[in-house]
Specification:
The longest helix is centred in the N-terminal third of the chain and has 16 residues. 44% of the residues lie in helices and 7% in strands. The chain has 120 residues and is mainly alpha-helical. The protein has one domain.
Length: 120
């Protein structure tokens, strides 16, 4: 039987991702940090193909693997304090939680922000 994959990224295996997806997640955080306003969503290379960072964050949405400290540190550097307080960082242990945080901040950044109009 031939398996047809509809995605470049492999599915999780019983909640676990291959190490190269963990690495792609870290690179996606770095790409998010370098993302300049007005540019298209950045991509990172996974298996030789460019992949949008939102796709990587979404793929690890249910990953039970423990997130390494260096990746958490990278997240702390890019996630605004208003989104994740100091106490909440102590509860981020798994890629699933990190992926949800990164996906949220990415969506917030991509959302159009309307100008504030004040009528006097």
């Amino acid at each position: 039987m031939t398996r047809l994959f509809t995605s470049l990224l492999p599915p999780l295996h019983e909640g676990h991702a291959p190490i190269y997806l963990h690495q792609a997640f870290h690179y996606a955080i770095e790409a998010y940090e370098d993302w300049e306003s007005g540019q298209a969503e950045p991509s990172v290379t996974v298996n030789g193909k460019p992949t949008r960072i939102s796709v990587i964050f979404r793929r690890l949405w249910n990953c039970n693997d423990i997130i390494p400290n260096h990746t958490l540190d990278a997240m702390r550097d890019v996630v605004p304090y208003a989104y994740v307080g100091a106490d909440e960082w102590n509860t981020v242990e798994r890629f699933s939680h990190g992926a949800r945080i990164m996906r949220f901040v990415l969506q917030e950044r991509k959302a159009p922000h309307l100008p504030l109009i004040i009528y006097l």
